Amino acid sequence: MTNIEDELIKRAQAADTEAFCQLAARYQRRIYSLALHYCHNPQDAEDLSQEVWLKAYQAIGGFRSESAFYTWIRRITINCFLNDKRAESSRGRGSDINIPVAVDNAPAIATGSETTLHNRILFERVMRALSQLTPQQKLIFLLKHHEGMTYEEIAKEIGCSTGTAKKSVSRAVAKLRQQLDVDDRASEYVPCAAEY
Amino acid sequence: MHNCKRTKTALLEMAVSKTPPDQNGSLWAELEQCDTCREEYESVRNALRVTDQAMQFALPAENFWPDYQARLHQRLEGASKFGLSKQPPRAGVFVWLGKFVTASVRVPVPLAATVVVLFVFSVIFTVYSRNALRAEPATSSPSVITKTVEVPVIRERTVTVYVERNRRTPRHTPRPEETERKALTTLARRQRETNPPVSLVGFKPADEVKLTIIKGSYRDDK
Q1: Which listed site, A47, B51, B130, B158, has its alpha carbon 20 to 30 Å from A109?
Q2: Spatial separation of the C-alpha atoms in residues A188 and A103, rounded to whole Å
Q3: What is the largest CA-CA distance in chain B?
Q4: DSSP A122-162
């Protein structure tokens, strides 16, 4: 924990909203990204991620610096996600996945219309694959692949066995492989618009 | 010895954790040897790479974040106004109680299954027995049956016998002399009763003496 972060936490604990917002700005992308991949919908992702920050703001008085701030906020995120019903409602709606609005104005990534279309198709396929998993399986995969947590850490946070965590990741990868249908030449994968 | 199934699990872990294969020497050697495992690894790695690429694409642009931050700030301000900003610090007991209530214990599946089965059986048994108790009065009305049963009774009779003992007169065993004397007395009395008393009137003494000797006793006569 840096000194600046430590200072921000102390101010936030004293109900300084501005300090808390500065603290949130450091991690909001990661939390939003997790929320977006978890519930597949930008609007739901924003609501969910802001709910996480709101709960963190309410509970920051109890933060005792026993762990890193991000570890603490991630625990709140996991609880918030598991208690949320948005991901459950999106489950099985493979053809109903919303493309993020923000994608349309992402100049850094979308260099051309063909690439944008390609990425959009890829994203839809990934989301379709993940939507076939239970919210818990999806969250376990995201925590493993995106957050780099160990199976033991995931099991402890989620409240399941390490075997369940491993199975969830294995199942998620199998679904992704099935949906993406990738092979060794995947790096040259250029989907045809007519295919979709 | 190479085991594709075991290697597959390790490969998945390596690909998901994004660990470079050369960091795991033994696994890398196995990949070099087995074509199937190498293809499997490449396939998983590519699937995850495409997934990353797609997810990266989905992230919002930079101009999204100021608005997001403003909305978050607004929500936090709103929460502060309604007094939700700070959670009162919980006392140690409540923290402990909260941890106790939310604590979970890992139970082996066979044990858990056994407990569940036992619970289900007990519930079924309870419901069944309760139904049986309820059904019984409806089917049979209460009736009183009188039966005479002979039960052997042991009667005891108490007989009280009073035996009087004259303690004042001690038991007297007559001595032989006394008995003899009594007998003589009795005999004399009887003779007196049967024979009237002899009178000496008209007695004349005889010239000769006739002596009769009687030997023995009255007992010998008998």
Answers
A1: A47
A2: 22
A3: 199
A4: HHHHHHHHHHTS-HHHHHHHHHHHTT---HHHHHHHHTS-H
Q: A15–B80: do the CB atoms touch at under 8 Å?
A: yes
Domain that holds residue A108: 96-196
Is the CA virtual torsion A139, A28, A44, A173 positive or negative?
negative
pLDDT at A90 (0 to 100): 54
Helix, strand, coil percentages for chain B (3-state, nearest 5): 60, 0, 40
Q: Determine, for residues B58 and A103 on separate chains, whether the beta-carbon distance falls below 8 Å.
A: yes
At B114, list the tokens: 């056994």
Token pair belonging to A89:
């409602």
Question: Is residue B67 less than 8 Å (CB to CB) from chain A?
Answer: no
Name B187's Cβ contacts closer than 8 Å, sequence gap at least 6: B218
Q: What interhelical angle do A162-180 and A113-131 show, nearest 10? A: 140
Q: Quick check: B39 contacting A, CB < 8 Å? A: yes
The CATH number linked to A113 is 1.10.10.10
Are residues A195 and A173 located together in one domain of the fold? yes
Q: Which residues of A touch B47 (CB under 8 A)?
A: 173, 176-177, 180, 182, 186
C-beta of residue A158 within 8 angstroms of C-beta of residue A136: yes
pLDDT in tens, B131-178: 887 776 655 666 788 888 888 887 777 788 887 776 665 556 667 788
Phi and psi of B201, rounded to 5°? -70, 130
Dig out the tokens for B28 from the structure. 């890398």
Q: Do B12 and A169 touch (CB under 8 A)?
A: yes
* CA pair distance B110, A164, nearest whole angstrom: 16
The model's pTM: 0.58
- Using the 3D structure, point to which of A34, A66, A90 is the last residue of a domain: A90
| pLDDT one-digit tens code per residue, A114-164 | 777 887 888 888 888 888 888 888 899 999 988 889 999 999 988 899 999
Same domain membership, residue A114 and residue A80: no
Question: Do A33 and A76 belong to one domain?
Answer: yes
Higher pLDDT, A26 or A129: A26
* CA distance linking residue B27 with residue B16, whole number of Å: 15
Q: Do A42 and B106 touch (CB under 8 A)?
A: no
